Backbone:
């Protein structure tokens, strides 16, 4: 077996080849960012709902969708954007097009999910957990 001289390897070319064309590393990083932000989103949402159920404060539950809940949601959206854009780039499309397409899709889907979350929280407030029982349908 032949020994490889590590001094003769052009590290810049190595990194450019393996981490930029196609961007496999960004696919993984985007996925990890989305998953971790999703876990944070789940935890914050669960805490907000439990706090609301215990106190039944004068604030409506749909008003609780502030920065505390929006921050992990934006983290999920950002991770999804990077994951989707890098995935599109793997098929050979230019980076500007991939990120433009991914931004439009992520913004539209994120807006719809945020709107749907508001509707579900309003149903929870008005009818309790039985109002959103999907198993009973």
Residues:
């Amino acid at each position: 077996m032949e020994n490889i001289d590590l001094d003769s390897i052009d590290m810049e070319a190595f990194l450019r080849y393996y981490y930029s064309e196609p961007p496999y590393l960004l696919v993984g990083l985007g996925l990890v960012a989305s998953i971790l932000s999703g876990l944070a989103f789940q935890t914050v949402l669960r805490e907000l709902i439990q706090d609301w159920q215990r106190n039944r404060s004068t604030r409506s539950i749909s008003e609780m969708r502030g920065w505390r809940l929006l921050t992990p949601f934006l983290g999920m959206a950002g991770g999804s954007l990077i994951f989707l854009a890098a995935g599109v780039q793997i098929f050979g499309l230019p980076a500007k097009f991939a990120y433009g397409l991914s931004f439009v899709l992520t913004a539209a889907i994120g807006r719809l999910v945020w709107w749907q979350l508001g509707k579900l929280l309003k149903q929870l407030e008005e009818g309790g957990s039985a109002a959103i029982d999907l198993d009973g349908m």
Remarks:
- The radius of gyration is 22 Å.
- The first helix runs from residue 11 to 19.
- Helices lie at 11-19, 24-55, 67-90, 95-127.
- Residues 23-127 form one domain.
